[in-house]
Amino acid sequence: MKRTRTSAVAIAMLVLALGLAACGEKSEDVSGEAEPLSLTLDFYPNPDHAGIYMAQELGYFEEAGLDVSIHTPADPAAPIKLLSAGQTDLAISYEPEVLLAHERGLEAIAVGALVNRPLTSMIWLKKSGIGGVGDLRGKTIATAGIPYQDAYLETILARANLTPSDVKVVNVGFGLLPAIVGGKAEAMLGGFRNVEGVDLRLRGKDPVVTPVDRLGVPTYDELVLVAQRQRLEQDPEPIRLFLAALARGTEAAAKSPQAATEALLEANPDLDPKLTRAEVAATLPLLDPPRHGRPYGYIAPGRWTEFAGWMRDNDQVSAPIPPAAVLSNAYLPGTIPE
């Protein structure tokens, strides 16, 4: 019995050592306790956060010496504001919001891509008879009323020689799904391919879901982790350790979708289990895509340059924004500290 216990302890210590090697050195304060780190989500816990909750469930943050607290914002526009005010260490936001924050003089730096492609989509139902964007003339399109998404719509329509005056646009806020299900609109812009798109499919509505980068909008990182520049300059190691632990959590989620779903449902019991399983299955390939030799969370500066140019051309920002002003890959797993 004693031999069995000793072997089990040895194995546990080996696993822990390997985990720490993957994450880097542990982060502890002078008292030897884990260092607190706060993360503010972009929205309520949902499948986009599967890697985060998997890392928390498996103890990867704890192994890295971090005491991570996860917070849900009252408003999806709040995370960068909280970050800039020093009320959170990390925030999840969107590439357009990071560029807009820079325009407002806020020092928000994207340090990793959580989802490195657009989720925002144009969605209609097959029964609507809409065969393409050109068929939207005279139709009602529900939007969330976000200014840069209104610019998405203008770009999308222009490819079909349409203008916003050729369609009826209704701002429904968070009511995109009810608008299209209830017949208030024939199409919607702003729903996520892995959320509203999956929900409509499970309802048997036969949706046509097209991400905006397939309709003329330059590709961009839908969700990014953002840190305050001053924090990165003064104490970057916890951010680095968090990203390494998140990479492990995301990989574990990809290998075990059921476990990832359970971790998410535990974090947010209000989620529908059946829908969440389907959404997680659709989301995991987007959270851990092929990396082509790049580290987890890599942000492509050239794509940000192109998208920032589109933002400027569409009057969302006033001047070109160089990538170095708004992003850094220096804190990703396997990179060399600057």
List keywords for this structure.
alpha/beta; 5-stranded mixed sheet; 338 residues; globular; D-Maltodextrin-Binding Protein, domain 2; 10 strands; disordered N terminus
Describe the structure.
The structure is a single chain. This protein has 338 residues and is α/β, with parallel strands linked by helices. 41% of the residues lie in helices and 16% in strands. The chain has 2 domains: 29-117 and 221-325, 3-Layer(aba) Sandwich (D-Maltodextrin-Binding Protein, domain 2); 120-214, Periplasmic binding protein-like II (D-Maltodextrin-Binding Protein, domain 2). The protein contains 13 helices and 10 strands. Strands 2-1-3-10-4 form a 5-stranded mixed beta sheet, sandwiched between helices. The protein has a 5-stranded mixed beta sheet with strand order 7-6-8-5-9, with helices on both faces. Strand 6, helix 6 and strand 7 (168-171) form a beta-alpha-beta unit. Helix 10 crosses helix 11 (257-267).
Under CATH, the topology of the largest domain can be stated as: D-Maltodextrin-Binding Protein, domain 2
| Structural class by secondary-structure content | alpha/beta
- Major β-sheet strand ordering: 2-1-3-10-4
CATH arch. level architecture of the largest domain: 3-Layer(aba) Sandwich
Q: How many structurally independent domains? A: 2
End-to-end CA span: 50 Å
From the alpha-carbon coordinates, what is the Rg to the nearest angstrom? 21 Å
At the fourth level of CATH, the homologous superfamily of the largest domain is Periplasmic binding protein-like II
CATH class of the largest domain: Alpha Beta
SSE order: HEHHEHEHEEEHEHEHEEHHHHH
Mean pLDDT: 91
Tally the helices: 13
Q: What low-confidence regions span 5 or more consecutive residues with pLDDT below 50?
A: 1-24
Q: How big a fraction of the residues is strand?
A: 15-25%
User: Into which percent range does the helicity of residues fall?
Assistant: 40-55%
Overall 3D form: globular
- For the report, how would you describe the main beta sheet? 5 strands, mixed
Q: Compute the number of strand runs.
A: 10
